[in-house]
Design goal:
Blueprint (H helix, E strand, L loop, with lengths): L3 H9 L3 H7 L1 E5 L1 H7 L5 E6 L1 H6 L8 E3 L2 H7 L8 E6 L10 H4 L1 E5 L5 H13 L4 E4 L9 H7 L7 E4 L2 H10 L4 E10 L9 E5 L8 H4 L4 E4 L15 H16 L1
Parallel strand pairs: 2-3, 5-6, 5-9, 6-7, 8-9, 8-10
Antiparallel strand pairs: 1-4, 2-4
Helix pairs in contact: 7-8, 7-11
Length: 253
């Protein structure tokens, strides 16, 4: 049975200030929780009796068995899915800038929609991108909506929150390619692409900020089809990320 205190605690983690204070976050559902368990310390595991029986070896500081109506009260989902877990956040590790000199990385310049961020993290996982650099105004990766949208990819992709200009300054000094998408950029499918570097994706409404754009050395454009025909003004940032990552990886095959 889930006590009122534990229910209140779980629900409080919907707010970033509480997640930050407690250094914990919520994940839900067999797929997401299952992917997270080997990678994050589980503080509290709340699940149905059947789930606990099938996963008796799951490690957690505390386990609570609940009925479906109790899980519904604790859940952030419209349709709760057997299990909810409270995980400890990983200690923030400083990622060396040099990683972008040897592999492909992403940078997010104020991407604010949790669904977009979660999808981008999932895309990064699919395309073997292990590091994402996020501006401070980018959505919180531990937001419940983001965690669910990643479908477990958060266990394999590392996010680093810090102002982007200092990072970009170092990359510029090291002559590491920095890519960004612009309406006046070069055709993505005709431009030469390196197997390493940093790809910057901009804010949903404003794109890449002028300060960050000043560091972009390789300007890309995703062409519409057919050329010259009136079409949508822009692509969703997660959709654009998928197209760009797919093309980078296609070149490496």
């Amino acid at each position: 049975m889930l006590s009122k205190a534990k229910l209140k605690y779980i629900r409080s983690l919907e707010l970033k200030k509480n997640r930050k204070a407690e250094q914990t976050f919520v994940a839900e559902g067999p797929k997401v929780v299952g992917d997270m368990l080997p990678h994050f310390l589980c503080r509290l595991l709340v699940a149905t009796d059947e789930w606990h029986r099938l996963h008796a070896d799951a490690m957690a500081d505390e386990k609570v068995t609940v009925k479906s109506d109790e899980l519904t009260r604790a859940s952030f989902l419209k349709t709760p899915q057997e299990v909810l877990a409270v995980f400890a956040m990983e200690a923030e590790e400083e990622c060396p800038v040099s990683v972008a000199a040897s592999e492909l990385c992403l940078a997010l310049d104020d991407v604010q929609d949790p669904g977009n961020l979660g999808t981008i993290i999932r895309l990064a996982d699919w395309f073997g991108i292990r590091h994402i650099f996020c501006s401070p105004a980018t959505a919180d990766a531990y937001n419940p909506k983001v965690v669910q949208a990643t479908m477990g990819a958060l266990a394999r992709v590392k996010l680093h929150y810090a102002p982007l200009p200092p990072l970009l300054e170092e990359l510029k000094a090291a002559a590491v390619p920095v890519y960004g998408t612009f309406l006046d950029g070069e055709d993505l499918y005709e431009k030469s692409l390196a197997p390493h570097g940093l790809v910057i994706m901009g804010n949903e409404g404003n794109g890449i900020s002028p300060e960050v754009a000043s560091y972009v050395s390789e300007r890309l454009f995703i062409p519409n089809y057919p050329a010259g025909v009136e079409t949508s003004e822009s692509l969703n940032v997660a959709t654009a990320t998928a197209i760009i990552c797919a093309e980078f990886r296609r070149r490496m095959r």
